[in-house]
Amino acid sequence: MPLIATLLRASPALFAAAFAAALVCGLGGAALVMLINAALNTPPERLVATLIPFVLVAVLVMTAQAGSRALFAHLGQRCLGRIRREIAEAILRAPYQRLERVGQARMRSAFSDDAVNIANFGVGFPVVVTNLVVVLGALGYLAWLSLGVFAVALVLIALGSFGYHLSHRKVVEHLRRAGFSQDRLYGDFDALLGGAKELKLNETKARRFLDRDLAGAIGAVGTDRARGLSLLALSDGWGRFLFMFLIGVALFARLWLPGESAGIVTGYVIAFLYLMGPLEGVLAHLPYVNLARVAIGRVQGVLSDLAAEPVDPSVRIPETPRSITLEGVTHGYFREREEDVFTLGPIDLTLVPGEATFVVGGNGSGKTTLAKLVTGLYAPEGGRIRVDGAAVGDAGRQAYRQLFSAIYADFQLFETLLEAPSGRLDARANEWLAKLHLDRKVTVSDGAFSTRDLSQGQRKRLALVAACVEDRPVMVFDEWAADQDPAFKDVFYRELLPELKARGKTLVVITHDDRYFDLADRLVKLEGGRIVETGPSQPREPIDPSVAALRLAAGGASA
Q1: What does the alpha-carbon distance between residue 396 and residue 314 come to, in Å, rounded to a whole number?
Q2: What's the pLDDT tens digit per position in 394-403?
Q3: DSSP characters for 79-119?
Q4: Predicted TM-score of the model (pTM)
Q5: In the beta sheet, which residues pair with residue 349?
Q6: Is-contact 400 376, C-beta < 8 A?
Q7: Which of these, 378, 384, 546, 371, lies nearest to 476 by C-alpha position?
Q8: Dihedral sign for Cα atoms in the order 444, 449, 453, 457
């Protein structure tokens, strides 16, 4: 069973200890049924002999129950952490394009609700195990008391199981549909958060989005879950009715089975009344079991779809390459709005240290897609990428990506620089903060920003600080200056880019700022996925990174 295997993988030793405690608790519970019936049919003068075993078994049951639930609680949380870690690892190992296909909503749902449902199964598992052992032990005791009554009980139990089985498939189907609806709900909620500004400016659109899109997703999740849980409640009621019927059979067994003694009948009635609690415990946890079964399937589906890209540790990429060349590179993807396939390329382009290549073009011309191909986030569908003449294969793409620092339009600013904290790191970061005119608002201490509560343009400057501290040989800026004020745009193009070039960096700048096009060493214009224009008319010699560093130290990089 995948659910049991998931708990077992989290910690085999902890699972074994918790399961053993649950078994002891269940066996003790079954023993209590026998002791209770024995006490009811024992003369008063012999009750003392039954008292001590009863007390010992009761204490054992209490201790084992507390121990098993505590151990399974720890196991459930460890299982939750393991699943979430596996999902996070899979996200980092999978090709970026596959992440886009899977979608954030589905990954977030697996990371949160699905993982929690599996952990909740771990918490409730000892209750199911304990109660099932009690039920099986008591049934064995009842068979020992009277095979005739036990045969009737088995028939009724089989009817109850058959009724539950009929509803079980529908329950799982409804819960699975609710899971897919929840993916859509997360996507709509992300849209609500991301588009709150636009929706606040248009009440009509806001109400339509809330009443039609978001409410529809909420309703779909609620409807499917309610139907699934209602079917469970129906099967629970059917089981309860049969259980009461069993008690009736036991009470009036002597009408049909005259040979049965009053002690046997009393034993059956006591056993069935005692079993009501364990059976209700099992039935109460069946929804969690079903939710967990659906959740484990969804998590396994996400992990399967996030298959890792091939990685060859033996692949070596030059730390400071003299050239990165795109030869006939193509890449296509489906555009939902236009309902067609957009193809970028073939692209022929060479990037060298100490040069700034400006990529320009209208919206939808393929600029960001080109940036993702250059940085290795997308694999070329046609053509190849070469580093110093050597082709980059699939197994070497991870190593190739380590050449780049990039700031995309939808950048993520982390709380820390994610580098090993040191005084030197803090000093370098604070130097860049001063150059970016942020030293009065933000400082870096122990590798962490003192605040990120800034405007979008200022947050982009913090992202640039993090990129500069990484000190990678190639830097890509996707519309980085779009959120900057005019004065700082000038600083970026006329001071920061020349300084980075003087440090020997290879720069790729996606921009619409035509007033700065003359500062580019090479201007590449895209139109409809093709390069339609390139410049400048006077090509420059590539700058060796070591020569560039000496030039910067000598003051060659004037702002």
Answers
A1: 9
A2: 999 999 999 9
A3: HHHHHHHHHHHHHHHS-HHHHHHH-HHHHHHIIIIIHHHHH
A4: 0.74
A5: 326
A6: yes
A7: 371
A8: positive
